[in-house]
Design a protein that fits this description.
Layout: H1 11-30, H2 37-55, H3 62-67, H4 80-97, H5 106-117, H6 147-159, H7 167-181, H8 188-202, H9 214-219, H10 221-233, H11 239-263, H12 275-287, H13 292-299, H14 303-315, E1 319-322, E2 329-332
Antiparallel strand pairs: 1-2
Helix pairs in contact: 1-11, 2-4, 4-5, 4-8, 5-8, 6-7, 7-8, 7-11, 10-11, 13-14
Length: about 325
């Protein structure tokens, strides 16, 4: 039996959804001017990792988190605060690599939790549902024996009925319900917020991965926890939670738009990306660098076709060539 959320859509929520659509349209149109996209993406990683771990008590400042963006993978020898952040970066990378995954399997959710919880769990095992009953402040989540069935119901809803909803709504519902089930022994907060972001990626809402929604929750943690608590007090009616989350998306998109306006190049015409150029940039982000032959093979184009894609990106200062003429490789330009 699939999970069935209960809610109503108020005029206020409808107005925010319309505002979100308007902002997203502005951002999507502007985002074809790619010179500043890598910087915005890196900024999103920093802000999301800082905010989502800070909500759980991580003491690192935004500047300290930013310094870790190019750091090594997390190890058990690193300070716990650094491990939490590096794990979150790895989790974001996992989301980006699986952004279009369909259907979502429980194994994928457990894998994400395993990444986020590596070497930082205070109780339980990363990637495995809890085997104990827990309390979260005054809230007592479902008994551990109920977790497998509840998670199966939630994922069934995610893969089915959620598709009929706006991603603004489905992301918020997924976020709340996961936190209510609290399926793992620890690191549920980070995992729930990551799942909400995954839904935005999966539904094509944040195609450029530049929205740091977690900042909204972090900046007023009491309001965040109060909004979660209110759903339980309202007999699991998520209507007000949806309004809270929609307000967060409005704020997030307004900030992204402001950042875009601040960094848009003023001295040249915008570069309109072709789909294969977008694919190429993703490949370079995932691999670090590629040879010309690797590029044309991955994209299924000729050598000349590959160069026709690369040259505008180099002229725009997005991609650079490193190495010799014979052994040169292309990578995103370092800033």
């Amino acid at each position: 039996m699939s999970y069935e959320p209960h809610f109503s859509i108020s005029p206020n929520l409808l107005g925010m959804i319309e505002r979100i659509a308007e902002l997203r349209s502005h951002i999507q149109r502007a985002a074809v001017d790619v010179a500043w996209i890598p910087g915005l993406q890196k900024d999103m990683w920093t802000r999301s990792a800082h905010a989502s771990t800070a909500i759980e008590g991580n003491p690192l400042t935004l500047a300290e988190v930013r310094a870790l963006t190019d750091g090594p993978p997390a190890t058990s020898a690193a300070p716990r605060s650094s491990r939490e952040v590096l794990n979150y970066f790895a989790g974001l990378r996992y989301l980006e690599q699986h952004a279009a995954e369909r259907p979502i399997l429980e194994a994928y959710v457990c894998k994400l939790h395993r990444i986020l919880g590596k070497d930082v769990m205070e109780q339980g095992t990363e990637g495995e549902y809890r085997l104990i009953d827990v309390s979260v402040g005054a809230y007592s989540p479902p008994r551990h024996t109920e977790v497998p069935d509840l998670m199966a119901d939630l994922i069934g809803w995610w893969n089915g009925p959620s598709e009929a909803l706006s991603p603004v709504l489905s992301s918020a519902i997924l976020h709340y319900r996961f936190e209510a089930i609290h399926p793992f022994g620890d690191v549920n907060g980070r995992a729930g917020r990551a799942l909400a972001l995954w839904e935005l990626y999966r539904r094509g809402f944040d195609t450029h991965h530049i929205f740091a929604v977690d900042e909204y929750y972090w900046e007023d943690r009491p309001a965040y926890y109060a909004a979660l608590t209110h759903v339980r007090e309202a007999d699991e009616d998520v209507s007000e939670w949806l309004e809270y989350c929609a307000a967060g998306l409005v704020q997030t998109l307004e900030r992204v738009w402001d950042r875009i306006l601040a960094v848009r190049p003023k001295d040249r015409e915008p570069l309109v990306l072709r789909p294969r150029q977008e694919q190429l940039l993703k490949l370079l982000r995932d691999t670090g660098s590629m040879s010309p032959s690797e590029i044309w093979e991955a994209l299924g184009v000729s050598r000349q076709g590959a160069m026709d894609l690369i040259k505008p990106l180099m002229a725009a200062g997005i991609v650079e060539k490193v190495g010799t003429k014979k052994t040169g490789r292309y990578q995103l330009k370092r800033r």
